[in-house]
Design brief:
Elements: E1 2-4, H1 8-24, E2 37-39, H2 40-47, H3 65-71, E3 82-83, E4 86-87
Parallel strand pairs: 1-2
Antiparallel strand pairs: 3-4
Length: 98
């Protein structure tokens, strides 16, 4: 996991891992799944007990679930794309199957 203090950096670092994979075929992280990038505010929210999906972690290009599991943060995968109490079905992909 990478933690940044700049709100633009996670977007840049997160998004460009995907773009580099698309353009060059190069993958980062363990098993080529990408390296999750968070702001310190997101990490503070997790430590304080906020739901990862309420923090907006589902908006990251690189899946954050492996990090959540590794540090013991509980989350409901069914709520990942919930909007106003309604769970929507979203076709997702990982860097592995792009």
């Amino acid at each position: 996991m990478i933690i940044t203090n700049c709100p633009g950096c996670p977007m840049f670092l997160d998004r460009w891992q995907y773009v580099i994979n698309e353009m060059e075929g190069k993958r980062y992280g363990r098993d080529g799944e990408g390296i999750p990038v968070f702001t310190y505010e997101e990490v503070a929210g997790l430590v304080l007990g906020y739901d990862p999906w309420d923090l907006g972690l589902q908006m990251h290009q690189t899946d954050c679930e492996p990090v959540l599991e590794k540090i013991g943060i509980e989350y409901d995968p069914e709520r990942k794309y919930e909007i106003n109490g309604i769970v929507t079905k979203v076709n997702t992909h990982s860097m592995l199957n792009v």
